Protein 1
Amino acid sequence: MPKIDLTTVPERRGTSYPAPYAKVAQDRVKQVLGDAGGLSDFGVNLTRLPPGSWSSQRHWHTREDEFVYVLSGELVLVTDAGEQPLRAGECAAFPKGVADGHHLVNRGSGTAVYLEIGTRSAEDACHYPDIDLHLDGARGWTHKDGTAY
């Protein structure tokens, strides 16, 4: 089963963020290719981001590396350092434990397509520097003070 038939991989639209934070990524579409291929140590997602959409809220992980590779279209990478364009054939890496919030924004007129690749860790925590949101692998979504959503 090494070859994955993309037509059989379900599409997931939107995000699991609690309100009001889900709206910016509500039109994002992912196909979870790593799961479809039976991978467990790292994930691979084929993601389509229509104009005006964000990949996520700006975030960083304590125990998960992330990598994105743009297949088509153009995105804006937003980090603590500012904004950079990411075009087809370009990529970015986000090492675990580096407190540099990042996300992708599609400000163009067409849908952008990219691969997301990242490690999977049950002990990971995800920090969102711009909003009152925190994700803990054991507790799920919480406010920054630790109270549950």
Protein 2
Amino acid sequence: MQELDRVDRSIMQRLARDARLSVSRVAEEVGLSQSACTRRIQALEASGQLKGYGARFDHRALGFRVTALVDITLSTQVEEELAQFERAVQEIDGVVECLLVSGAHDYRLKIICRDLDDYERLHREHLGRLPCVTTISSSFVLRAVATRSEADALFK
């Protein structure tokens, strides 16, 4: 994997803040020609360091008023059963992130729901039926205090 230089980091920061920026605008902001900037962006994509582009949404404005952080402990650490759990969790609508973690629990899920009734339904119909689960512990986000783009966190 190639080491990112100052220009690559600057390109990544700009694209993270606004993925709709034109290449010519990014090139202008980082002090490159459009063709040089295009080559760098293509190289970042080809290396897998730049994985894609996307939009950020205001969940509350879209009617999703509950964000739950769910810690899950499994009964086993057998690779086949971990894979079975991971396949099953990927099928659950509302799960926006599933992380294998160290510590007291095995996985942490981030779930976005319309309301508590929607979360209760998701828990009953999906979380409670996941394979090998021994404990489920849910916390609800009251307010986001700090949110940064990945580029801001990675390339300071």
